[in-house]
Amino acid sequence: MSQVLKIACGSVAVGLAVLAIKTIAWWLTGSVALLSDALESIVNVATALAAVVALRIAAQPADSRHPFGHHKAEYFSAVLEGVLIVVAAILILREAWSAWQDPRIIEAPWLGLGINCVASLINAAWCWKLIRTGRRMHSPALEADGRHLLTDVVSSIGVTAGVVAAVLTGWAWLDPALAALVALNILWSGWQVVRGSVGGLMDVSAPEEELEQMRALISANAEGAVEAHDLRSRRAGSAVFVEFHLVVPGDMTVDAAHDICDRVEGALHKAFEGSRVIIHVEPEHKAKHSGIVVL
Question: Which superkingdom is the protein from (predicted)?
Answer without folding.
Answer: Bacteria
